[in-house]
Amino acid sequence: METTAREIAATIIERCKARGVTDVSNLKLQKLLYYAQAWNLVFSEEPLFSDTCEAWVHGPVVARVFGEYKSNRWAPISDPIGPSVGDTEIGAHIDNVLDAYGDLGATQLERLTHQERPWLEARAGLAPDEPSRNPISMKSMKEFYSSLVAQS
Predict the structure, then answer these.
(1) Domain limits for position 11
(2) The total number of structural domains that make up the chain
(3) How many angstroms separate the Cα of 19 from the Cα of each of 22, 27, 64, 91, 98?
(4) What would the pLDDT profile of 77-118 be if each residue is shown by its tens digit?
């Protein structure tokens, strides 16, 4: 079953809410989407969704999903737009991502992505505050996060 980034975002929001994680702003949602994609590339060896993660100033962003939640600005998102994936293998994957990253704040997640090779490579040559729609390579994501598994 192919999922969309929109469905994954809805699942992240629903599952965070169920865990009592109430600080899911669009900034945090974007980073959690990115990590869900990255770790799916490592463990399932395929993309979780087809949308591209882009290397924006504040870290990885799925532009289409960002646009859907843009009206929230920096405020927490209370309800998802659209359906979630429910209790599936993908839902279990999202739970694992939230176990690892869900308790981190938006700025902590931003700082983390700013230290990692996929985002850095996609922004190579750009000033820190220079806007960018550069794609973050799925190949780079898979290689980098796979290397973290190999180190542990």
Answers:
(1) 5-151
(2) 1
(3) 9, 19, 26, 14, 9
(4) 988 888 888 888 999 999 999 999 999 999 999 999 999 999
